[in-house]
Task: inverse folding
């Protein structure tokens, strides 16, 4: 029985904060402790109340101990696409992304990209992600094999795409169905893996393929679904042209049984009133990808408008349209995208989003996203004095909320002092 006692300033959320003054939403201990046992959090509270005789203490004071960060949308094979300049979405896909994804036909390349992805995510304190692999079964196999080797809780999907891309990436409705079904049998619910039904988007899936995806979703209602929606004006127009019978872009997915509480729709920037209402009604999740939306010039995510209309939302890096693997950088750019629209994301809400909020959006909050006893011990330790700029700024910080804002605005992987996956340290823990 492996046991560990972490000491530090423990912070998680019991619910969504209603603003920067809503300290009741927090579970915070200035001198806190977490007892980790067999991959789970066995006890949490003030250090002097946690009885753990004989268990060695890993002392992280004065740093913050939070649940591992969660990324609700990224592309496993696109680390080498990040920072490819000069185009909007459809050109960027054709010019940079599809050729790079085609390389995952080679299982050795897919394996290298999966390992590189997890190395980068963990360096940034991200312990769970919802990921697109490529249309090659081998890429998803590499993803799940590597995630299992590291005992990571991961959602992944073999991308379905049967048109509108180079031949080397195209499948058919049948192979997309069969290979995703095979992946589910092999991986879904095995260890910490979940297999997502992953039609790339309505541009690269025929109606027949979306039908097949919908049939899989009906047969496997516990599997997540992930796709892209309304990211770019040219894409929206092309989707309407390719699916003339549908009421609108979201309607294409809805008509094929792909809307619902486990459905994650990346971007959602140019939705109509009907689409917003239908997304809210079906409990579908709109995923905010700020660095990607800025980088590709796609548009501004209307968080306040969507949430006022009852939509569920999440936040994500969108590697490699996104420009950082870090959820701290993602929160920082998210703050700016919302500020451009006169909206504010306070730091408590920001960190709620990257932890419990995203866990709820992925329907995983009973397992991850808090420091509640019984949940899985995925943990990040954050240091708000990690750089010279942060240290100077911290001289004038007077509250936890201000400290969190420094972390999200100035922080990156240098601020990640330690990471635990299912109770085991994987990024340098301090000497005892
Ligand atoms: N839409 C369809 N595929 C992609 C992708 O790989 N990245 C982004 N940002 N949008 C997409
Ligand atoms: Zn994406």
Result:
């Amino acid at each position: 029985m492996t046991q560990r006692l972490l000491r530090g300033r423990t912070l998680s959320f019991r619910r969504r904060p209603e603003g920067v003054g809503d300290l009741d939403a927090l579970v915070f201990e200035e001198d806190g402790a977490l007892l980790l046992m067999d991959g789970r959090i066995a006890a949490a509270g003030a250090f002097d109340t946690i009885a753990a005789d004989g268990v060695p203490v890993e002392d992280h004071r004065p740093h913050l101990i939070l649940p591992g960060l969660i990324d609700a949308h990224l592309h496993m094979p696109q680390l080498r696409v990040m920072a490819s300049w000069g185009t909007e979405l459809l050109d960027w896909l054709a010019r940079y992304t599809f050729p790079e994804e085609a390389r995952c036909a080679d299982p050795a390349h897919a394996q290298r990209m999966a390992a590189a992805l997890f190395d980068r995510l963990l360096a940034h304190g991200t312990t769970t992600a919802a990921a697109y692999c490529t249309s090659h079964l081998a890429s998803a196999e590499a993803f799940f094999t590597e995630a299992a080797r590291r005992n990571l809780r991961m959602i992944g999907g073999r991308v379905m795409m049967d048109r509108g891309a180079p031949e080397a990436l195209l499948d058919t409705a049948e192979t997309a169905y069969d290979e995703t079904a095979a992946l589910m049998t092999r991986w879904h619910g095995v260890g910490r893996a979940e297999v997502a039904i992953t039609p790339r988007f309505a541009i690269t899936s025929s109606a027949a393929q979306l039908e097949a995806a919908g049939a899989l979703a009906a047969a496997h209602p516990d599997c997540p679904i992930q796709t892209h929606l309304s990211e770019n004006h040219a894409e929206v127009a092309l989707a309407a042209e390719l699916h003339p019978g549908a009421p609108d872009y979201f309607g294409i997915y809805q008509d094929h049984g792909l809307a619902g509480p486990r459905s994650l729709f990346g971007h959602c920037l140019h939705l109509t009133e009907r689409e917003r209402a239908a997304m809210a009604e079906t409990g579908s999740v709109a995923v905010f990808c700020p660095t990607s939306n800025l980088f590709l010039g796609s548009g501004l995510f209307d968080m306040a408008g969507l949430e006022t209309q009852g939509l569920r939302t999440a936040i994500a890096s969108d590697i490699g349209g996104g420009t950082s693997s870090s959820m701290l950088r993602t929160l920082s750019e998210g703050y700016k995208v919302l500020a451009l629209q006169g909206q504010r994301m306070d730091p408590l809400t920001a960190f709620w989003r990257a932890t419990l909020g995203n866990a709820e959006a992925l329907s995983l909050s009973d397992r991850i996203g808090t420091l509640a006893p019984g949940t899985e011990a995925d943990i990040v330790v954050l240091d708000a004095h990690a750089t010279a700029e942060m240290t100077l700024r911290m001289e004038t910080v007077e509250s936890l909320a201000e400290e969190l804002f420094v972390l999200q605005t100035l922080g990156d992987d240098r601020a990640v002092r330690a990471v635990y996956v299912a109770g085991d340290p994987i990024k340098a823990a301090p000497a005892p």
